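Record 1 of the preview.
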Amino acid sequence: MKVKSVSYLGSFGDARSFPRPRGPEITFVGRSNVGKSSLINTLLGRRNVARTSNTPGKTRTVNYYLVNEAFCFVDMPGYGYAQVSREERGGWGRLIAGYLAQREALCGVVQLLDVRHTPNDADRDLVLSVADTRKPFCLAFNKIDKVGRASVARNIADHLRALDVEEDTAVVAFSSETGEGKRELWSWIVEAMGLERTDDIS
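->
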C-alpha cells in the first residue's frame, strides 16, 4: 500500500462524538507502552503522525487518521495502565468496548502484544471482546528486535497458547525499529478492508 496522504481527524473521548465514517476503519488496540503509536507511524511511513511517548498511558482518547482519503486508522487508548484512577481506566474500557461493538465502519482489529511478555488477563479479555465482533483479527507481536532471533518464534508460540486463540488467527511478528513485518501487516490490512491486493506495499 503506497501511503500518499495522512490527515489527523481528531481525538475523541466519547463514542457519541466519533466522526462520521470516511471509509473502512482498522483499529489498533493494546496494552499501554506496547508501541501502538510507533507501529502506526511505521506503517504510514511517517515519524510523528501518531504521537509517541516514554510515558505509559499517553493515548487516552480514540485518535482518527484518514489515509489516502480512503480509509481510517483508529488508535485506541492503551489499556492496563495502573497509574490512573480506576474510574479513568473504566472509562477507557467502555470507550473501547463501545467502539468494537457499535462501529459499523470497523473492518478489522490489530491487537498489539509485546513479544517479550506473557499476555495478561486484560490481553485475554480483549481477545474475547474482539472475537465477539466477528471482524477480521490480527495479533501483532511487537518489539521483536528486543529479543534474540531464536526466541521470537518460541515466545509467540507460548503467547498464543496463553491466549487460547483459534489456530487460524492471523499473526505478524513486527518491529517498528527495523520495519520487519510491515509488508505482512499491510497485506493483512488490505485484505481485511476488502481492497484490491497490489504489490505496491511499502
